[in-house]
Amino acid sequence: MMTELLKNIGVTHLYSTPYHPMTNGQIGRFNATMDAKIAALSNEKRTNWDEQLPFVTFNYNTSIHTTTGQIPFELMHGRSTTTINYTFTRPRASIKIKSIFININRTSKN
Predict the structure, then answer these.
(1) Three-state SS string across 42-81, please?
(2) What are the Integrase catalytic domain coordinates in residue numbering (predicted)?
């Protein structure tokens, strides 16, 4: 099923050797970036990393990447995203949105 999906959307799936950094450089860099950001937001024992994942992913996908010079979200969707700042300034912003805003700002600093 996955092979058919990739074929239909014109994606060539490439395989690499496991545990071989020379062939997995981009993935290794991505994982290191995500790990550092998750560590910055997680508690001391890192038991809540899964709660921080949406914030870290949002930050990653809405930041300019040095490789492409582009923002991944804009490349994927052809438009810019509604930022938390815009959402936060709406009159009915909830405490949850404020919490998201604080987490995104904390992630951006790391």
Answers:
(1) CCCCCCCHHHHHHHHHHHHHCCCCCCCCCCHHHHHHCCCC
(2) 1-80
- Cβ 71 vs Cβ 64: under 8 Å: yes
Of the listed ranges 1-15, 29-43, 82-96, the least confidently predicted one is: 82-96
Look up residue 95 and give its two tokens.
Answer: 């405490």
For residue 102, how many other CB atoms are within 10 A of its CB? 13
Question: Residue 71 corresponds to which tokens in the numbers above?
Answer: 């923002």
State phi, psi for 79 to the nearest 5 degrees: -155, 165
Helix (H) or strand (E) holding 33: helix 25-41
The rounded distance, in Å, linking the Cα atoms of 88 and 98 is: 7
Is the pLDDT score of 15 beyond 60?
yes
**Who's near 88: CB < 8 A, 6+ residues apart?**
97, 98, 101
